[in-house]
Design goal:
- The complex is a heterodimer of chains A (562) and B (223).
- Chain A is an all-alpha fold.
- Chain A has a single domain, classed as Cytochrome C Oxidase, Chain A (Up-down Bundle), CATH 1.20.210.
- Chain A has 18 helices and no strands.
- The longest helix of chain A has 41 residues.
- Chain A is globular and about 80 Å long.
- With 223 residues, chain B is mostly helical.
- Chain B folds into two domains: 44 residues, no CATH class; 173 residues, Cytochrome c oxidase, subunit III, four-helix bundle (Four Helix Bundle (Hemerythrin (Met), subunit A), Up-down Bundle).
- Chain B is built from six helices and no strands.
- In chain B, helix 2 runs antiparallel to helix 5, helix 4 packs antiparallel against helix 5 and helix 5 packs antiparallel against helix 6.
- Chain B starts with 6 loop residues before the first helix and ends with a helix.
- The chains are: A mainly alpha (562), B mainly alpha (223).
- The interface between A and B is large, with 78 and 68 residues.
Chain lengths: 562, 223
């Protein structure tokens, strides 16, 4: 007698079709679910950012949505927290890695499923719980809200760990025949390195959240109190903050989290730039090394945000050097993107535009990063606005551009139809102009407001200028948020319209996901496992049609050429 | 030829095969646990490599969690409010039990290697019992401390004592669950053999053992 105790197929056949769709273990369904989650979060987060700007410009104006709450400073701090949590956890971390990664990783390496599908499903639903928790924390009074937020962050860490485990094992173990490491698409490298990085840092966040939560709820003494501070060097006590240890643990996670958000975007951009320039990735090996380098150095710069809070005076210097040295792999990546575009037969689709937009934002945001990596300068001359401008450009907006570029590119594989190109291009230009109008003045604001060394008369003038710059920023924010309606219209309009049958490979791309139908079929590659014959970016040829997909055997390729 | 079949066609084929529902027998190749969609997948052999890699990666992650706590412990123990916890003598006994369980686990695997399933089951059960005994011992050690008036909230040292033992205990409960799962599961239909499952479990169990020795040393030397 054979018994099946796999835990699968437990749903009764008739009643639970929907349930088994919702709690699916299929990597494609899960990937899409992550993307829907991100879409909801990004829209909510964006509206919040507009509200925050409105509040910054007109502090006394009653905001319709929020007038039911008291509009105290705490409320707006909570709103900032919600904006940040939604964007960082559920958009920047979720979409490029968990959304696109879950959908595309098995397809790109020629696997039929992730290594541990049940774990994957669990991690998705933990993420959903965490999203619900972080949203709920906003509606609670602060003391309670913080507890709920911490618990949600811990749950998110757990989900991220499970996903990272899945990604790592899938990449190592489930590659198709012939898919050697040098033949992996750069996207897969980025997801892989990123999974390893997440594996290391989310455990630390989990430990941090557990201990803080235990302090708050059970009254343990991990992070309290003044007695601890009295033992510490003088420079630490000068900062009144009592939670230095918590800060260390948190920034150990949070600084690396920046690279967790960015790494998959690097992969996506490299992939798209090569495909749309019809050229192989320039210096592909170096790019892969640079991605590994970003992962490694990104893991080591955790002390960087602690410049302001007591450390051994020599430590900031070390972190400063490390943080600056991130410029080296970043420069490699940049060089490769530009080198690939150079003399390429660039196809200006919306996806290409967003990819080039990413590169532009990456340069602009990266330049201000060089200032901030100086441990002495960052304290002396600039205020919060400069930092906010910097990280929104380089992390927030740039990553969003990469997500949009990826979405326009993979939309046929995801849903079986293409997004509207003219609408997409209009949306791109409006957004591109909008974000520069928001964040460039914000850098300026950061430099201005800190000029306390100026004489009195000039300070008044500076304050006046500051007020008008703030107004410009607010107007630009409203403009940019409004421009996103174009995207929403495009997205839902395309999905709702009757589907045209889409070509399997509309972009003439080489990687394995384009060897199957659009949208990707239920069982990925069917009965026959794909075999890989060459690297991922053999795009050179005299015409657009001359490219070598990874899965075509040399004989078939020769036939196709004839 | 991939790329020629569209989704509706595949669904049609699957409908026929599965008789219009997910109620049929699952494919034999569902060893990855949970195929909730109830559709047949092509039967491809699954190499056990993913389980070895998975447990290795998982161990690194668990290690990182405890290292974060350990470094917080080392930073924190300079504080003036630090009152060292006297480690209950019972902990030494518990340690012997846990190390012993690692030994019996290896004995069990050796029996399995000689295809002596009965012997394997015997030693495997002994391992499970020792594991449970360790957990009970830890709880008793907590009660001893509580009787002495040392609670989680008493001071930083006690907080760390409870979180180290508690977190390790939680992870070990996972290990015990794995032991029970391997003992009870029917491996005839599964894609992994019993010896692979036993080996993967043993890695985790030995890791838990070594981790406990490390934590104990930390608590003992670092007080």
């Amino acid at each position: 007698m054979v018994t099946y105790d796999d835990g699968g197929n437990a749903w009764p056949a008739t009643s639970s079709r929907l349930l088994s769709r919702v709690f699916s273990t299929r990597h494609k369904t899960i990937g899409l679910q992550y993307l829907w989650l991100s879409l909801a979060s990004v829209l909510a987060g964006m509206v919040l950012s507009a509200l925050l700007r409105v509040h910054a410009s007109w502090p006394n104006a009653a905001i319709p949505f929020l007038s039911d709450f008291e509009s105290t400073p705490e409320r707006f701090t909570a709103m900032r927290l919600l904006h940040g949590s939604l964007m960082v956890f559920f958009v920047l971390t979720a979409a490029p890695q968990l959304g696109f990664g879950n959908f595309l990783l098995p397809l790109q390496i020629g696997a039929e499923e992730m290594a541990f599908p049940a774990l994957n499903c669990l991690s998705l639903w933990l993420t959903v719980v965490s999203l619900a928790g972080m949203t709920a924390s906003f509606f609670r009074p602060p003391s309670q809200g913080i507890d709920v937020w911490l618990a949600s962050a811990a749950i998110f860490s757990l989900a991220a760990l499970l996903s990272a485990l899945n990604f790592t094992v899938t990449t190592i173990e489930l590659r198709a025949k012939g898919m050697t490491l040098p033949r992996l698409p750069v996207t897969v490298w980025a997801w892989f390195v990123n999974a390893i990085l997440s594996m290391l840092i989310f455990s630390v966040l989990l430990a941090g959240c557990t201990t803080v939560l235990s302090d708050r709820v059970l009254g343990s003494n991990f992070f309290s109190t003044a007695a601890f501070l009295a033992q510490q060097p003088q420079n630490l006590v000068r900062q009144v903050s009592l939670s230095v240890l918590w800060q260390r643990v948190f920034w150990y996670f949070a600084q690396a989290e920046v690279y967790v958000a960015m790494l998959p975007c690097f992969g996506i951009i490299t992939h798209l730039v090569a495909t749309f320039s019809r050229k192989p990735v320039w210096k592909e090996r170096l790019v892969v090394l640079a991605i590994c380098g970003v992962g490694l150095i990104g893991f080591c710069v955790w002390g960087y945000h602690m410049f302001a809070t007591g450390m051994n005076p020599y430590a900031p210097l070390v972190f400063s050097v490390l943080a600056s040295s991130l410029g080296v792999p970043a420069a490699f990546l940049l060089g490769s993107w530009l080198g690939t575009l150079w003399n390429g037969r660039v196809q200006f689709t919306t996806s290409t535009l967003f990819a080039i937009g990413f590169i532009s934002l990456f340069i602009a945001g990266g330049l201000s990063g060089i200032f901030l990596a100086r441990h002495d300068l960052s304290r002396a001359a600039v205020s919060e606005d400069f930092v906010i401008g910097h990280f929104h450009l380089v992390m927030g907006v740039a990553a969003t551009f990469a997500i949009l570029a990826g979405l326009f590119f993979w939309f046929p594989k995801l849903f079986g139809c293409r997004l509207n190109e003219p609408l997409g291009k209009t949306h791109f230009w409006l957004t591109f102009a909008g974000v520069y109008c928001i964040f460039m003045p914000m850098h300026w604001l950061g430099l201005l407001t800190q000029s306390t060394l100026l004489p009195e008369a000039q300070r008044v003038a500076v304050a006046l200028a500051g007020a008008s710059i703030r107004m410009v920023v607010t107007a630009a924010t409203i403009w940019t948020v409004a421009a996103q309606t174009l995207f929403v219209a495009n997205f839902f309009g395309t999905l709702l319209r009757a589907k045209r049958a889409e070509a399997d490979n509309p972009w003439q791309a080489t990687t394995l996901e384009w060897s199957v139908a659009s949208p990707a079929p239920e069982e990925n590659f069917g009965a026959e496992a794909p075999v890989v014959y060459r690297g991922a970016y053999e795009l050179t040829g005299s015409s657009r049609e001359q490219f070598a997909p990874q899965h075509l055997s040399p004989e078939l390729l020769a036939q196709k050429a004839r | 030829m991939p790329g020629t079949i569209t989704t509706p066609e595949i669904e049609l084929i699957l409908e026929k095969k599965n008789g219009g529902g997910g109620g049929d027998l699952p494919p034999a190749g569902g060893g990855d646990g949970g195929d909730g969609d109830g559709k047949k997948r092509p039967n491809r052999p699954v190499s056990p490599g993913r389980y070895y890699t998975g447990i290795a990666v998982g161990i690194v992650s668990v290690l990182m969690f405890f290292m974060a706590l350990a470094s917080a412990f080392l930073v924190r123990k300079g504080g003036a409010d630090w009152v060292p916890v006297r480690i209950p003598a019972l902990l030494w006994f518990n340690t012997v039990v846990l190390v012993g369980s690692s030994g019996t686990l290896e004995l069990a695997r050796k029996r399995l290697g000689n295809s002596d399933v009965l012997g394997f089951r015997k030693f495997w059960t002994v391992t499970t019992v020792l594991g449970v005994a360790f957990l009970i011992g830890q709880v008793v050690a907590w009660r001893v401390l509580v009787k002495e008036g040392i609670y989680l909230a008493s001071n930083p040292a006690s907080s760390f004592f409870y979180i180290f033992t508690g977190a390790h205990g939680l992870h070990l409960i996972g290990g015990v669950a794995a032991l029970i799962y391997v003992a009870r599961r029917n491996f005839d239909a599964a894609q992994v053999t019993r010896s692979v499952a036993a080996e993967v479990t043993s890695y985790y169990w030995h890791f838990m053992d070594a981790l406990w020795l490390f934590l104990l040393a930390l608590l003992y030397l670092g007080k």
